[in-house]
Here is the input.
Amino acid sequence: MKIHPHPTRRTWNILSLTILLVLLVGRQVAAGHARPSPSPPSDSAMPPEPQSGIYRVYYGTQERLDILAAHFDIRQVEPGAGYAVLGLDGSSAAALIAQGYRLELDEEQTTQQLLGPPGYPCYRDVDELYADLQQLAADYPALTELIDYGDSWHKVTPGDEPGYDLWALKITNEHALTPAPKPRFFLMATIHARELTTPETAMYFVEHLLTNYDRDPDATWVVDYHEIYVVVTANPDGLLIVEDGCLQRKNGNDARGVCRVCDPWGDDHYGVDLNRNNPYHWGGASAFPCAETYQGTEAASEPETYYLNDLVRAIFPDQRPGDDASPAPDDATGLLISLHSYGNLVLWPWGWTHDAAPNQAQLQTLGRKFAYFNNYMPEQSSALYRTTGDTTDWAYGELGIPAYTFELGEWFFQPCSDLPQIREENLETLLYAAKVARTPYLTASGPDVLNLSVSPGEVARAEITQVTATIDDTRYNNANGAESVQVVAAAEYYIDVPPWETGTAPIAQPLTALDGDWDAPVEGVGASIDTLGLGEGRHTIFLRGQDADGNWGAFSAVFLDVLPPTSSLALRPTIDARGGGRGHSVTYNLTLTNLGSLEERYLLGVSGNAWETTLSITTTPELLPLGTTGVQVEVNVPLSASLGQTDTATVTATAQGDSTQSASSTLITSAGLLKFYLPLVLRDARDAHHSSQ
Here is the structure.
């Protein structure tokens, strides 16, 4: 990211700032209640204004915290200690003190923020993000599609700033043979411009899927059987302002130009908070244009919100009634995650109310599963504080899809040294989200597949290989309540055709518990796979587990490579030496074995011999892989042979289907008296006597 030494400022006037200070004290709060404004003290009693800085604001009750959240940008909440962390200028701090809040200046964070960002080369700016998206689309045309889904505020509004197209990257293998509709997973980042770890985490996920396609089995089947949409920056105008080192949260809307551009304390920026601008329960955030939680003039007033809503509506079906109380069906499909920073949290709807959402149990289960992978705190969004017009409330409330906010890391401008860990700890989380997107409310209750392997992973056809795995029903983050755990009851695998491909008759194959009993929440499982019926090439083994309540968990996959069919054979013994009496035959018994993976017929011949040699067969029957046949060879020792004379015959078998594949046996026959067998010796002498007559 390019960090410029002197932040750019747009024009603002002193009168506007005066209006701002008045409104800060008297701004309206959620649900139409006015914040009480104490009478100002006389000039002689006026205390000095607090300094601008990062403050711990002790709120006392949840209601008072909700009031703060409606008007200020809360960076962090520590419920145990009873305070929220806010960036405040002096006048805002004074107004809160006048209303009875206790404030403590956090000198360390204040000093750090005053220093400003020293430079963060690990973070890409808008142009770099968009250039990399274009390059990925060019590098992987069979797996990607760039979608221009709208325009930013500056692009649709005439003025000095050119603005940006709004881009989404669609990832799927359009050529995958799958008659079933593909489930959709939607990932978005940088709706708040200054949250710099979020686009990098989204890009890391994109790059992992594309660069590991056809290398990593889980990345491959996720891309084959899903549509994944990624918006790496939902707020490019705001991110452009952040490039100047400003802590800009909102979009670039400067139409109500009473606000500054780069106030370091975050309570005097122009723009609209896009995460308070969505049309589901819009209207409870700040109506003050300079506030960090300014909700806009009406629901979806901002082009970034309007076009994002249209894109998401086009991707997901509406699966929930319009009222607040009706749940989405258990088999609802689709999933949305919005990446934010900071706080190390996994949050789910509702945010607009402290009441539980109709699908609270399923949302909580899936949230605890996500939090297991990234080790964040899982909780309902409003347990932190109330928000209105939030993206995830809108996605769940209007469409019924489970929708989550991930709060990454511990700072807006997270040090570059921390970025690899943040990306890596969320990669597995996002992969799991993609895996369960077909039926997220159901699948999250089932066990996970770990340590999946096939050994050997490369086999000739008709060889046996072993698949093993661990099925684990315990993987939930229970830091905020405990998720129920069941005994693992079953596991199954599919070869190439997963169970949702109903048009191609998928066949489930059972696995057995390696210890002999299905009696624990973590079980080792295994099975033997006979590859005789598999064609050559790469095969995908899909495996999943089921708990005692009947919940099937997410699939994991492993590759199995069946090597191309081969012709290979052995003729044994490879060398043999025998003796025989002159005028008699010597018999050799050979064994021919098909070592290849093809059913094969072999041709036999003999060469190099001077003495008469006869083969029992010259063409074998068809031999299956590992099939054998016997070959008998007769060598006649001539009467004319001198005692001790030898003859060498080479018997060769050649594969009829592949003449380059052959094997041979060398047979050495010697002439002479048959040793130690008196009747034959006498007969041999007698035959010699008669021949002289």
User: Anything to note?
Assistant: The first helix runs from residue 14 to 26. The radius of gyration is 38 Å. The chain is about 25% helix and 25% strand.
